[in-house]
Here is the input.
Amino acid sequence: MPTQPGAQHDLHGSAPDTHHTCLLLIDVINDFEFPRGDELFEQARHIAAPIAALKQRAHSAGVPCVYVNDNFGQWRSSFEAILNHALRPNARGRDFVRQLTPQPEDYFVLKPKHSAFYQTPLELLLKHLGTERLILTGVSSNSCVLCTANDAYMRDLALIIPPDCIAACNHREHCYALEHMRDMLKAEILESERLDPEFLSRPPQTGSPT
Here is the structure.
């Protein structure tokens, strides 16, 4: 595979996929053991199956899947340690996480704050993947998903938000975030079942989302 001018060959070796679309799974490796975590879990448990089904279709279409996850303040943790913590027998989010266990072909990015872009290598990874459009899934709609959407919009990335694949602590907060992403960030709000392999294979419309 020829290396683009200025690109680092070794990073291409670590990120061999190329696609105009990328699926982000935001904070789905989650124990839900934090303030209001019980509220969020009640809403989030309904989105695990749709996310898992969408991820399967994304793999079928050759769309890279990137887990972007909080380190939950555990600065010495690895992604594997966070996964094991969320899967322990008494973890509130265990059944949720088990439906979304990463596969060997998936990518992983740990983030210290709300946005998937803040102080992470995500932007560089997306550049080497050739990403023009992001599909955002995960929790929570009005926090980490919204902050990530804002940062993606500022980078001229097209956005798709499946409302059945994100969740907030309650319906009001969820709807507020969806309205903001639709109206201010020009995101397409599409139910996940519409994102079949044929749709995912079509490139986004040309032109900046601004």
